[in-house]
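Justification of resources, computational component.

The compute hours requested in this renewal are based largely on the per-chain cost of generating structure records like the one below. Each record pairs the submitted sequence with a full C-alpha coordinate output. That output is archived, and it is also reused by downstream analysis tasks.
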Amino acid sequence: MTQERFHPIGTPGQHWGDAEKAQWLAAQSIKRRYADEVESRIDALRGRFEVIEYGRLDYAPDHYPLYALRSRDWSDALPVALVTGGVHGYETSGVQGALDFAAGAAQDYAGRVNLLIAPCVSPWAYERIHRWNRDAIDPNRSFRTDSPSGEAAALMRLVEPLLGRIALHIDLHETTDTDETEFRPALAARDGKPFEPGEIPDGFYLVDDTENPQPGFQQAVIEAVAEVTHIAPADAHGEIIGSPVVAPGIIRYPLKALGLCAGMTGARYTTTTEVYPDSPRATPAQCNAAQVAAVRAALDYLLAHPVA
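The structure output for this chain reads:
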Protein backbone atom coordinates (compact mmCIF):
# COMPACT_ATOMS: atom_id res chain seq x y z
CA MET A 1 0.00 0.00 0.00
CA THR A 2 1.20 3.52 -0.77
CA GLN A 3 1.08 5.90 2.15
CA GLU A 4 1.34 9.65 2.00
CA ARG A 5 3.81 10.88 4.60
CA PHE A 6 4.47 14.53 5.20
CA HIS A 7 8.05 15.67 4.63
CA PRO A 8 8.99 19.15 5.78
CA ILE A 9 10.79 20.01 2.53
CA GLY A 10 9.20 20.30 -0.86
CA THR A 11 5.77 20.04 -2.41
CA PRO A 12 4.15 16.60 -2.75
CA GLY A 13 4.41 15.33 -6.30
CA GLN A 14 7.16 17.76 -7.31
CA HIS A 15 10.91 17.12 -7.61
CA TRP A 16 13.15 19.21 -5.44
CA GLY A 17 14.75 22.18 -7.12
CA ASP A 18 17.72 24.24 -6.00
CA ALA A 19 15.70 25.98 -3.29
CA GLU A 20 14.56 22.74 -1.69
CA LYS A 21 18.08 21.27 -1.83
CA ALA A 22 19.44 24.42 -0.21
CA GLN A 23 16.82 24.14 2.52
CA TRP A 24 17.79 20.51 3.08
CA LEU A 25 21.50 21.36 3.20
CA ALA A 26 20.93 24.14 5.72
CA ALA A 27 19.32 21.60 8.06
CA GLN A 28 22.41 19.36 8.12
CA SER A 29 24.92 19.66 10.96
CA ILE A 30 28.14 17.99 12.02
CA LYS A 31 27.56 15.31 14.66
CA ARG A 32 30.96 13.60 14.72
CA ARG A 33 34.41 14.24 13.30
CA TYR A 34 36.00 12.38 10.41
CA ALA A 35 39.44 13.51 11.57
CA ASP A 36 38.93 12.07 15.05
CA GLU A 37 37.15 8.80 14.21
CA VAL A 38 38.60 7.89 10.81
CA GLU A 39 41.73 9.83 9.87
CA SER A 40 43.36 9.18 13.23
CA ARG A 41 42.85 5.42 12.80
CA ILE A 42 44.22 5.55 9.27
CA ASP A 43 47.30 7.43 10.51
CA ALA A 44 47.89 4.68 13.07
CA LEU A 45 48.03 2.12 10.24
CA ARG A 46 50.74 3.82 8.18
CA GLY A 47 53.32 1.33 9.40
CA ARG A 48 51.27 -1.59 8.06
CA PHE A 49 49.83 -0.12 4.87
CA GLU A 50 50.68 2.32 2.18
CA VAL A 51 48.20 5.17 2.73
CA ILE A 52 46.94 6.66 -0.53
CA GLU A 53 45.11 9.99 -0.73
CA TYR A 54 43.05 9.19 -3.80
CA GLY A 55 40.96 12.33 -3.93
CA ARG A 56 39.62 15.32 -2.05
CA LEU A 57 36.12 16.61 -1.52
CA ASP A 58 36.02 20.39 -1.58
CA TYR A 59 32.68 21.06 0.03
CA ALA A 60 33.38 24.62 1.12
CA PRO A 61 33.93 25.51 3.85
CA ASP A 62 34.76 21.85 4.51
CA HIS A 63 37.49 19.85 2.79
CA TYR A 64 37.87 16.10 3.10
CA PRO A 65 40.85 14.03 1.95
CA LEU A 66 39.84 10.56 0.73
CA TYR A 67 42.09 7.72 1.86
CA ALA A 68 42.72 4.12 0.88
CA LEU A 69 44.99 1.55 2.50
CA ARG A 70 47.12 -0.54 0.14
CA SER A 71 49.14 -3.63 0.98
CA ARG A 72 52.81 -2.78 1.41
CA ASP A 73 53.82 -6.18 0.04
CA TRP A 74 51.77 -5.72 -3.16
CA SER A 75 52.64 -8.32 -5.77
CA ASP A 76 51.35 -8.76 -9.31
CA ALA A 77 51.34 -12.50 -8.65
CA LEU A 78 48.61 -12.20 -6.00
CA PRO A 79 44.84 -11.72 -6.35
CA VAL A 80 43.44 -8.27 -5.64
CA ALA A 81 40.66 -7.75 -3.08
CA LEU A 82 38.81 -4.46 -2.61
CA VAL A 83 37.09 -3.61 0.67
CA THR A 84 34.92 -0.49 0.81
CA GLY A 85 33.01 1.09 3.68
CA GLY A 86 31.11 4.27 4.39
CA VAL A 87 29.67 4.71 0.90
CA HIS A 88 26.66 5.76 2.96
CA GLY A 89 28.25 7.88 5.64
CA TYR A 90 25.69 7.14 8.32
CA GLU A 91 26.37 3.41 8.24
CA THR A 92 28.93 3.38 11.03
CA SER A 93 29.96 -0.27 11.14
CA GLY A 94 30.88 -0.20 7.48
CA VAL A 95 33.57 2.36 8.29
CA GLN A 96 34.67 1.05 11.66
CA GLY A 97 34.44 -2.58 10.54
CA ALA A 98 36.76 -1.87 7.61
CA LEU A 99 39.21 -0.14 9.95
CA ASP A 100 38.97 -2.93 12.52
CA PHE A 101 39.79 -5.45 9.80
CA ALA A 102 42.74 -3.37 8.61
CA ALA A 103 44.06 -3.01 12.16
CA GLY A 104 43.75 -6.70 13.00
CA ALA A 105 42.85 -9.60 10.73
CA ALA A 106 44.36 -8.05 7.58
CA GLN A 107 47.82 -9.15 8.69
CA ASP A 108 46.70 -12.78 8.28
CA TYR A 109 46.49 -12.20 4.51
CA ALA A 110 49.88 -10.57 4.02
CA GLY A 111 51.66 -12.22 1.13
CA ARG A 112 48.48 -14.03 0.10
CA VAL A 113 46.18 -11.28 -1.19
CA ASN A 114 46.72 -7.72 -2.37
CA LEU A 115 44.39 -5.61 -0.21
CA LEU A 116 42.95 -2.24 -1.18
CA ILE A 117 40.72 -0.82 1.57
CA ALA A 118 38.71 2.41 1.25
CA PRO A 119 37.19 2.62 4.74
CA CYS A 120 35.18 5.85 4.44
CA VAL A 121 34.08 6.72 0.92
CA SER A 122 31.72 9.52 2.07
CA PRO A 123 33.32 11.55 4.89
CA TRP A 124 30.97 14.56 4.57
CA ALA A 125 28.03 12.23 5.16
CA TYR A 126 29.92 10.36 7.90
CA GLU A 127 30.19 13.56 9.92
CA ARG A 128 26.50 14.36 9.45
CA ILE A 129 25.30 10.77 9.87
CA HIS A 130 23.54 10.92 6.52
CA ARG A 131 22.94 8.74 3.48
CA TRP A 132 23.44 11.43 0.84
CA ASN A 133 26.34 13.69 -0.02
CA ARG A 134 26.24 17.47 0.19
CA ASP A 135 24.34 17.70 -3.09
CA ALA A 136 21.51 15.41 -1.88
CA ILE A 137 22.87 12.63 -4.10
CA ASP A 138 23.11 9.01 -3.01
CA PRO A 139 26.69 7.92 -3.84
CA ASN A 140 25.56 4.29 -3.87
CA ARG A 141 23.39 4.86 -6.90
CA SER A 142 26.11 6.81 -8.69
CA PHE A 143 28.87 4.37 -9.67
CA ARG A 144 28.64 4.96 -13.39
CA THR A 145 30.31 6.95 -16.15
CA ASP A 146 30.10 10.72 -15.56
CA SER A 147 28.98 10.12 -11.98
CA PRO A 148 27.26 13.08 -10.32
CA SER A 149 28.82 12.05 -7.00
CA GLY A 150 32.35 13.22 -6.25
CA GLU A 151 32.69 10.38 -3.77
CA ALA A 152 31.81 7.70 -6.33
CA ALA A 153 33.86 9.29 -9.10
CA ALA A 154 36.98 9.45 -6.93
CA LEU A 155 36.71 5.81 -5.93
CA MET A 156 36.19 4.76 -9.54
CA ARG A 157 39.36 6.63 -10.54
CA LEU A 158 41.25 4.83 -7.78
CA VAL A 159 40.28 1.36 -8.97
CA GLU A 160 40.35 2.03 -12.72
CA PRO A 161 43.97 0.88 -13.19
CA LEU A 162 43.06 -2.41 -11.49
CA LEU A 163 39.96 -3.26 -13.52
CA GLY A 164 40.22 -6.79 -14.80
CA ARG A 165 42.51 -7.74 -11.91
CA ILE A 166 40.15 -7.32 -8.94
CA ALA A 167 38.93 -10.78 -7.94
CA LEU A 168 36.87 -9.76 -4.92
CA HIS A 169 34.94 -6.69 -3.84
CA ILE A 170 33.05 -6.58 -0.55
CA ASP A 171 31.12 -3.38 0.22
CA LEU A 172 30.19 -2.90 3.89
CA HIS A 173 26.77 -1.39 4.72
CA GLU A 174 24.02 -1.18 7.35
CA THR A 175 20.24 -1.10 7.19
CA THR A 176 18.87 1.09 9.98
CA ASP A 177 15.55 2.20 11.39
CA THR A 178 16.27 5.67 9.99
CA ASP A 179 16.08 4.18 6.50
CA GLU A 180 12.35 3.95 7.07
CA THR A 181 11.77 6.99 9.28
CA GLU A 182 14.08 9.50 7.63
CA PHE A 183 15.91 8.56 4.45
CA ARG A 184 13.22 6.84 2.39
CA PRO A 185 10.65 9.58 3.09
CA ALA A 186 13.29 12.16 2.11
CA LEU A 187 14.05 10.24 -1.08
CA ALA A 188 10.37 10.18 -2.01
CA ALA A 189 10.07 13.90 -1.34
CA ARG A 190 13.23 14.72 -3.31
CA ASP A 191 12.00 12.76 -6.33
CA GLY A 192 8.38 13.95 -6.12
CA LYS A 193 7.03 10.48 -5.44
CA PRO A 194 4.70 9.12 -2.76
CA PHE A 195 6.39 7.38 0.16
CA GLU A 196 5.88 3.61 0.15
CA PRO A 197 6.46 2.15 3.62
CA GLY A 198 8.59 -0.93 3.95
CA GLU A 199 9.87 -3.27 6.62
CA ILE A 200 13.35 -3.13 8.16
CA PRO A 201 14.84 -6.64 8.45
CA ASP A 202 16.14 -7.63 11.87
CA GLY A 203 19.57 -9.06 11.25
CA PHE A 204 22.45 -9.41 8.84
CA TYR A 205 21.94 -10.09 5.14
CA LEU A 206 23.84 -9.95 1.85
CA VAL A 207 23.12 -8.56 -1.61
CA ASP A 208 24.44 -10.79 -4.40
CA ASP A 209 24.66 -9.77 -8.06
CA THR A 210 21.75 -10.78 -10.30
CA GLU A 211 24.06 -10.74 -13.34
CA ASN A 212 26.86 -12.70 -11.66
CA PRO A 213 25.37 -14.82 -8.87
CA GLN A 214 27.86 -16.60 -6.65
CA PRO A 215 25.74 -18.65 -4.23
CA GLY A 216 28.63 -20.60 -2.73
CA PHE A 217 30.54 -17.43 -1.97
CA GLN A 218 27.51 -15.71 -0.41
CA GLN A 219 26.72 -18.79 1.69
CA ALA A 220 30.27 -18.93 3.05
CA VAL A 221 29.98 -15.34 4.22
CA ILE A 222 26.56 -15.90 5.80
CA GLU A 223 27.81 -18.96 7.69
CA ALA A 224 30.77 -17.05 9.11
CA VAL A 225 28.70 -14.05 10.17
CA ALA A 226 26.07 -16.29 11.80
CA GLU A 227 28.69 -17.10 14.43
CA VAL A 228 28.86 -13.40 15.35
CA THR A 229 25.30 -12.08 14.96
CA HIS A 230 21.90 -13.25 13.77
CA ILE A 231 20.88 -13.52 10.12
CA ALA A 232 17.80 -11.62 8.94
CA PRO A 233 14.77 -13.81 8.24
CA ALA A 234 12.52 -13.33 5.23
CA ASP A 235 9.33 -11.36 5.80
CA ALA A 236 5.82 -12.76 5.35
CA HIS A 237 6.21 -12.40 1.57
CA GLY A 238 9.49 -14.33 1.47
CA GLU A 239 11.40 -11.09 0.87
CA ILE A 240 13.98 -8.80 2.42
CA ILE A 241 13.51 -5.08 1.63
CA GLY A 242 11.19 -5.98 -1.22
CA SER A 243 13.47 -8.53 -2.92
CA PRO A 244 12.96 -12.31 -2.96
CA VAL A 245 15.18 -14.25 -0.59
CA VAL A 246 17.15 -16.70 -2.73
CA ALA A 247 18.83 -18.39 0.28
CA PRO A 248 18.79 -17.60 4.00
CA GLY A 249 19.97 -14.02 4.40
CA ILE A 250 20.69 -13.51 0.68
CA ILE A 251 18.93 -11.36 -1.93
CA ARG A 252 20.06 -10.19 -5.36
CA TYR A 253 20.24 -6.84 -7.16
CA PRO A 254 21.54 -5.96 -10.64
CA LEU A 255 24.51 -4.20 -9.07
CA LYS A 256 26.00 -2.45 -12.10
CA ALA A 257 22.67 -1.41 -13.62
CA LEU A 258 21.69 0.28 -10.34
CA GLY A 259 25.00 2.11 -10.07
CA LEU A 260 25.90 0.34 -6.83
CA CYS A 261 29.42 0.37 -5.46
CA ALA A 262 29.72 -3.42 -5.45
CA GLY A 263 29.03 -3.50 -9.18
CA MET A 264 31.80 -1.15 -10.33
CA THR A 265 34.73 -3.57 -10.61
CA GLY A 266 33.38 -6.57 -12.53
CA ALA A 267 35.04 -8.82 -9.94
CA ARG A 268 34.15 -12.51 -9.84
CA TYR A 269 33.19 -12.34 -6.18
CA THR A 270 31.09 -9.36 -5.12
CA THR A 271 28.72 -8.73 -2.24
CA THR A 272 27.17 -5.96 -0.21
CA THR A 273 26.86 -6.61 3.51
CA GLU A 274 23.97 -5.23 5.57
CA VAL A 275 23.93 -5.32 9.37
CA TYR A 276 21.13 -4.03 11.59
CA PRO A 277 22.58 -1.89 14.40
CA ASP A 278 19.15 -0.99 15.81
CA SER A 279 18.31 -4.58 16.68
CA PRO A 280 17.82 -5.33 20.40
CA ARG A 281 19.81 -8.47 19.67
CA ALA A 282 22.97 -6.72 18.45
CA THR A 283 25.46 -4.20 19.82
CA PRO A 284 27.68 -1.76 17.89
CA ALA A 285 30.65 -3.98 18.69
CA GLN A 286 28.82 -7.00 17.27
CA CYS A 287 28.01 -5.09 14.10
CA ASN A 288 31.66 -4.15 13.63
CA ALA A 289 32.68 -7.74 14.33
CA ALA A 290 30.13 -9.02 11.81
CA GLN A 291 31.69 -6.83 9.12
CA VAL A 292 35.15 -8.16 9.97
CA ALA A 293 33.86 -11.74 9.88
CA ALA A 294 32.30 -11.08 6.48
CA VAL A 295 35.55 -9.73 5.05
CA ARG A 296 37.54 -12.64 6.43
CA ALA A 297 35.10 -15.21 5.08
CA ALA A 298 35.12 -13.52 1.66
CA LEU A 299 38.92 -13.59 1.51
CA ASP A 300 39.09 -17.18 2.70
CA TYR A 301 36.65 -18.20 -0.02
CA LEU A 302 38.70 -16.39 -2.65
CA LEU A 303 41.86 -18.19 -1.54
CA ALA A 304 40.07 -21.55 -1.59
CA HIS A 305 38.42 -20.81 -4.96
CA PRO A 306 40.90 -18.66 -6.88
CA VAL A 307 39.89 -16.86 -10.02
CA ALA A 308 41.64 -18.30 -13.05
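The radius of gyration is 19 Å. The chain has one domain: 30-304.
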